[in-house]
Amino acid sequence: MSSPVPEEPERPQTASEILGAALGGAARKAGLDPAQSASTHTVVWSAMGGWRGIVESVLPSLAFVILFTLRPQPLILPLGVSVGLAAMFTIVRLVQKSPPSAALGGLIAAVAAAGLALWTGRGEDNFVPGLITNAVYGSAILVSALIGWSVIGLAAGFLMGEGTAWRTDRRKRRAFFWLGIAWAALFFARLAVQFPLYLAGDVTALGTFKLVMGLPLFAPLIAVTWLVVRALYPRAPSREDAAAA
Hints:
The protein is mainly α. The protein has one domain. 73% of the residues lie in helices and 0% in strands. It is built from 11 helices and no strands. The protein has helices spanning 15-29, 40-48, 50-70, 76-95, 101-120, 128-146, 151-159, 170-200, 203-212, 215-232, 239-244. It is globular. The N and C termini lie far apart (57 Å). Mean pLDDT is 84; it is low at 239-245. Keywords: Membrane, Transmembrane, Transmembrane helix. Pfam families: DUF3159 (PF11361). It comes from Microbacterium sufflavum. InterPro entries: UCP010219 (IPR016566). This is DUF3159 domain-containing protein.
């Protein structure tokens, strides 16, 4: 009798593979899956969460800016309305049993920012978490691109089922490098404009530029990233495509 062939132990995942799976999973949940045959408009709209996602993202900050501009004191009024709107959006999602992650994240950020502003008594401190987020994201994406492990590439590699094999393809490495530079530039551009306004204590201008440099810049960069990844991984024609031809 032949002895059974011992099973090979599973290879433990590397840190890059774990990170790629996490990034790719998050991108897929946001509707950014290059393996799917969706139009660029559909993908961008899905990434922003549609009209609901736009309202949930914009309205709390917009309410704070408007109310603070009209009546900066007491500070609790604009902060309370901002947090209240974020809480309302989260509750509505929970009641409707829709994914609450985006609204819940916005609520946590709003509560943290409002708490800091109330503690210091400075309206501009409501924007500190956003400034920190831009600095952290920009730095992480820039460093990952410079060392050849672009987080854009890690996410795309997971989504397209090739893991980190893209690093052996010079064309893909170059594309993911420049996509990483573009995303890092977006976050640092926000910092370059908004941080001086924070130091100057100009809350109205700071809030306005936060909104202007938010979704209006995020959407076109999502579109560019989607188009580049789809060009790097052309989709094989399906039977439906062949029949249509």
